[in-house]
């Protein structure tokens, strides 16, 4: 995986107002921790960070006063619209150490079952994997061409590159091709809804009859 180089600046402990000031000036508050070293409070240029995240970057080489260190993007906090980055958690890593990360799934192909009238339903959008830092993939490609009507593809069926181990439980369904909804099934569902809606009226009549008998 390609490592993106970003120039960073140290920042004081500050607080909410200090962080708001940074954001107004085009910078994102961040924290670097791990490897039994003291956490470092830094800020990153919003534009450079947004571009890196947009290209699926998981690793950064953070340059602070001419000294670089490799970090893994551990957590990203966005605003309520999910657009602007508010804060980033970074963890120090060695390029050869093993890490566990979540990687997005990239679905490829069109299932046989879809041509038979079915509909592809995605159950998972990412998988947890374990690999060396330098092997973290941007995505895991999953071929769905062979899935027939009513069949599912499970995590245990997903193939990965050598050195990448999937941690997500193998029995979890990744996707399924659902059979088409028939007219009969639709009629039965509507009938069940009508029956459920009519039930309170029956209960109400029973209550009135009981009160009449008592009277």
What does this structure look like?
25% of the residues lie in helices and 40% in strands. It has 215 residues and is α+β, with helices and mostly antiparallel strands. It has two domains: 90 residues, Ribosomal Protein L25, Chain P, CATH 2.40.240; 79 residues, RNA Polymerase Alpha Subunit, Chain A, domain 2, CATH 2.170.120.20. The strands form three sheets. It has a six-stranded mixed β-barrel. The C terminus is likely disordered.
What are its keywords?
single chain; 215 residues; alpha+beta; Ribosomal Protein L25, Chain P; RNA Polymerase Alpha Subunit, Chain A, domain 2; 2 domains; four-stranded mixed beta sheet
Distance between the termini: 83 Å
Q: How would you classify the helix and strand content by structural class?
A: alpha+beta
Count of helical regions = 4
- Counting structural domains, the number is 2
Strand composition percent: 35-45%
* Residue share in helix: 25-40%
Largest sheet, spatial ordering of strands: 1-3-2-6-5-4
CATH class of the largest domain: Mainly Beta
- Poorly predicted segments: 201-215
Q: What is the fold named in CATH at topology level of the largest domain?
A: Ribosomal Protein L25, Chain P
Rg, nearest Å? 27 Å
> What average pLDDT do the residues reach?
85
Order of helices and strands: EHEEHEEEEHEEEEEEH
Number-wise, the strands total 13
Overall shape: it is elongated
């Amino acid at each position: 995986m390609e490592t993106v180089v970003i120039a960073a600046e140290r920042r004081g402990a500050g607080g909410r107002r200090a962080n708001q000031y940074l954001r107004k000036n085009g910078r994102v508050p961040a924290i670097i921790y791990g490897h039994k070293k003291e956490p470092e409070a830094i800020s990153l240029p919003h534009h450079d960070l947004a571009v890196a995240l947009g290209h699926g970057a998981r690793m950064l080489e953070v340059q602070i006063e001419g000294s670089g260190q490799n970090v893994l993007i551990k957590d990203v906090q966005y605003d309520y619209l999910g657009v602007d980055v508010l804060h980033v958690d970074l963890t120090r890593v060695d390029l050869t150490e093993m890490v566990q990360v979540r990687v997005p799934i990239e679905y490829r192909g069109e299932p046989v079952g879809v041509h038979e009238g079915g509909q592809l339903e995605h159950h998972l959008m990412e998988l947890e994997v374990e690999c060396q830092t330098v092997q973290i993939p941007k995505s895991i490609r999953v071929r769905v061409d062979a899935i027939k009507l009513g069949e599912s593809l499970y995590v245990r069926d997903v193939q990965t590159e050598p050195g990448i181990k999937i941690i997500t439980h193998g029995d979890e369904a990744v996707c399924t091709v659902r059979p088409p909804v028939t007219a009969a099934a639709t009629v039965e569902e509507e009938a069940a809804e009508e029956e459920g809606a009519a039930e309170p009226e029956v209960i109400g009549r029973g209550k009135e009859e009981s009160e009449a008998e008592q009277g």
